[in-house]
Amino acid sequence: MAIPDIKRTLIGAPFPTSREVHERLDKVRGLAIFASDPISSNAYATEAIMSVLILLGSNALAMTLPLATAVAILVLMVVFSYIQTILHYPEGGGSYTVTKDNLGKYPSLLAGAALLIDYVLTVSVSVSAGVRAVTSAVPELYDYRVIIALLAISLITWINLRGMRESGSIFAVPTYAFIVGVLLTIGLGLLRAAGLFGLAPLPSFAETVPPTLSLTGFAYVWLLLRAFAGGCTALTGIEAISDGVKAFKPPESKNAAKTMVAMGIVAMSLFIGITYLSTYMHLVPVVHGESILSQMTRQVAGTGFLYYWVQIFTALILFLAANTGYQDFPRLSSFLANDGFMPRWMQNRGDRLVYSSGILVLAVISSLTVILFRANEIAMLPLYALGVMLSFTLSQASMSHLMSRIGQLQAGETAQTSVTHIHYERTWRLKKGLNILGAFTTGLVFMILAATKFMDGAWIVLVAVPLLVILFDRINKHYQLVAETLSTKGFKEEELVEVADVVIIPLADVHRGTLRALQYAKRIATDVRAVCISTSPEMRERFERRWARFPKLTAGVKLEIIDYDYRDILTPLISYIWHVNHEEFPGLLVTVVIPEFVPAEALDRILHNQTANLMRRYLRAQEDVIVIDVPYHIPSVAAVQQTHKGRPAERTEAVVKPAKAV
User: Which of 98, 449, 469, 646 could bridge 398 with an S-S bond, Cβ 3.0-4.6 Å?
Assistant: First the structure.
């Protein structure tokens, strides 16, 4: 089966570009695709707060609900800020676009770099967390956790390559099943806590855990801030919808904004509900043991159908939370590529109208991260959320700046920024105040995370972000240089370098492929030179004998046989071409025609043309050398056998007998 056939089988038939709007997402699929990360974070956000507070003993767990409420308020502020971003920047791009429009180039590159790193970690952490859930249920699979994680990344990559609408349909089931299961558990727990409908009251555990630390003053406040920062894992992925506004069906910005509201309500309802019931029953986090969500579900619903429902779909949504990264890493990369800060090919869509290059790049980097950290999400968590907090801070600071610009307009007046239209809004002061407060809070969380997790690995992100910014800037300068070099502004035709009337053909043998190259070369020049590097008298004699068999094709061609006593035939060949280019025709373009085989089977191509590939690499470094390939197609063995069916075996063998190429 040929590679195109394999691709069609795995990915599906290509979509016409005109179908792009049809492939966009409605709000139901959009919530499943873009909100899987913030919704899935409810599986561990409450536990992240409690795991810090337990250092002060079980009595300190009473602070979990107030801290969770503070996190929920922050989430709603961020959601509000991103709704404004969506409405003001309907083309998408989220933090990167709004920061570029309001704070300039380098702050926007900081936001872009931070988000790209966070999306890679979203995939790595989510998949590793899903693997942990699987290996917790089946401990025998623990030694295979890296392989399972890589298989999960491969599966999610494959689903995304098949198209956005199709992946949305697949991911919708586990996402909504998780939401329904946890909401039913919370609802049942609240009914039992209220003593309604004759339901048994919830158990309340009086387990006492002694404090491992005795803190007062600033140290105590610092620990509370650290617990608050841990709960801020609930914020990861919130910006996803603002990056992918154009993924929604028209009207894009309105549908994206409504989905953002739904995501905030659902995610925070689950978060506060889980936190309330966990603290109501005085549950205690267990290191490397049963999760808080599992404890809560078991105490509320027992170990029946609902418990296993929640556990199964918790594991699934932890796996599929990686899909948030798959949606936004390629999309953000396309924005950066369009502005010249990443390779241009990152903005190209594949046959199924998705950013397939970005998807594959993300899959490779995430797989390497999983291998490096041995699929241990605990080791990766200190790196997680730093990037998203930095992007939140820059985004909200940018929105506050935008609101100041809006406030300078008169009622009914509109203006054009570098990216979007703005108009006067009566509530600009309120919006600006909320954005400033949000930027201050997320900036504080970023500093807390950076300080408290620095030695645990957060330094990697703090180093990687500026390095990425430097890389973006270097790529941009390269594209600017290319544009300036290729520009025709002020160009005169007389500046073109003339082409010398000479063609050089490197030959190792005389066969159908080289004869075709000779025929082509004689059409484009009168001075044609065939160059053969002879490493033995026998090779020279054989080549001259075969050359003499075709007097019509070789007539007028100058044969240059260079005797060379070493095996490196490229050295004298390149030297000859250099001599012709610089000594005989200085300042003129010299043409080199390279005959090559093109086998029908892709795997067969590694058997040929390796010397020719090395030669191209050398020659393309020469400014005044033109390289032309003259291909000769070789049929597959199966095709030859079918064509010569019934003929003598020796004839078939003669047809497929390999020949030498350069």
Answer: 98
| Cα–Cα dist 582/585, whole Å | 6
Domains and CATH numbers, the chain: 27-474 (1.20.1740.10), 493-656 (3.40.50.620)
CA distances from residue 554 to 532, 540, 570 in whole angstroms, order as listed: 14, 17, 23
Q: Which two tokens stand for residue 616?
A: 């191209």
Question: What pLDDT is stored for residue 609 in this prediction?
Answer: 63
Q: Checking phi first, is residue 195 left (phi over 0); if not, alpha (psi -120 to 50) or beta?
A: left
Residue 378: other Cβ atoms inside 10 A: 14
Burial environment of residue 365 by CB neighbours within 10 A (0 to 12, 13 to 18, 19 or more): middle
- Where the chain has pLDDT below 50, the residues are 649-662
pLDDT of residue 17: 67
* Residue 318, token pair as written in the block: 């932890």
| pTM, to two decimals | 0.80
Instruction: Kindly give the pairing relationship between strand 499-507 and strand 589-599.
Output: parallel
Give the Cα separation of 432 and 423 in Å (integer). Answer: 15
Instruction: Give the C-alpha separation, 262 to 468, whole Å.
Output: 33
Euclidean distance between CA atoms 653 and 642, whole angstroms: 13
Distance CA 245, CA 242 (A): 6
Element (H, E) at 527: strand 527-534
Cα gap 300→280, rounded to integer Å: 11
CA dihedral sign, ordered 493, 495, 501, 504: negative
Which are the contacts of 423, defined by CB distance < 8 A and separation ≥ 6? Answer: 406, 409, 412, 413, 414, 415
Cα(306)–Cα(308) distance, integer angstroms: 6
DSSP state of 506: E
Nearest 5°: CA angle at 590, between 526 and 531?
70
256 contacts 35 by C-beta, under 8 angstroms: no
Cα distance between residue 280 and residue 62, in whole Å: 9
pLDDT tens sequence across 215-235:
778 888 888 888 888 888 888
Residue 529, pLDDT score:
96
- Burial class for 561, CB neighbours closer than 10 Å (0-12, 13-18, 19+): middle
**Cβ count near 562 (within 10 Å):** 15
pLDDT of residue 387: 87
Neighbours of 467 (CB within 10 A): 10
- Local structure of residue 172 (DSSP, 8 states): H
Strand partners, 504: 529, 592
Cα distance from N-terminal residue to C-terminal residue, the chain: 29
Alpha-carbon gap, residue 461 to 383, rounded angstroms? 6
237: left (phi > 0), else alpha (psi -120 to 50), else beta? left
Name the DSSP class of 576: H
3-class SS at 534? strand
Q: What residues are paired with 534 via a beta bridge? A: 563
Q: Which helix (H) or strand (E) holds 377?
A: helix 377-380
Cα 452 to chain center, whole Å?
A: 28
Inter-CA distances, 403 with 396, 419, 442, 578, 602, Å: 10, 15, 19, 63, 57
User: What confidence tens digit (pLDDT) does each residue in 516-550 have?
Assistant: 999 999 999 999 999 999 989 999 999 999 999 99
- The pair phi, psi for residue 556, each rounded to 5°, is 85, -5
242, 236, 392, 449 alpha-carbon torsion, rounded to 10°: -170
